[in-house]
Amino acid sequence: MALSAATARDLLGALPVTVADPLDAREFTDLERRFGFTFNPDHRTLLATGLPEGSRWPDWRDGDPDELRERLAAPIDGVLFDVQENGYWHPSWGERPSRTAFALAVAHRHLTEAPRLVPVYGHRYAPALPEPGLPVLSVMQTDVIVYGNDLAAYLRREFGLAGSDGEPAPALIPFWSDLL
User: Fold this and answer.
1) How many domains does the structure of the chain reveal?
2) Which of 53, 78, 137, 155 has the lowest tally of Cβ within 10 angstroms?
3) What pLDDT digit, counting tens, does each position of 53-72 carry?
4) Structural domain range at position 117
């Protein structure tokens, strides 16, 4: 189910943070063009209702572009770290090359085909896919956990807000759900 503007407003009002003016259509277009992704509908609705501020929230309006790029790259960089340092290899990638440099190149190619993950708060990410009701994932290298079956459930869980207990099963996200 899609996040409504009314629910987004209620959630933002309950967060223990300052909420700035919402992002406008021009800001969304600029961000998506500059960083090469599209906010999913729920994430867009939240940020079109208000922009949470604080050190762990991405500053989509005035943030350092290099810092935003690093946050956007962190999920893939974390998987590549595990490929290099911990021997991680996804079965769908075929046989692992014996040379680490080749393994990293193959992994990187496959990872760029996976849905992009967009930072929501800290190391919590929303998939950049066009449908609503997507889970928010906690991502640290190949340690991936569903932190909310959708954005509203995530915000309630992360910040201890009251809300619905009856969550549907989380939608599956190509590649990333394999790490759950």
Assistant:
1) 1
2) 53
3) 999 999 999 999 999 999 99
4) 5-179
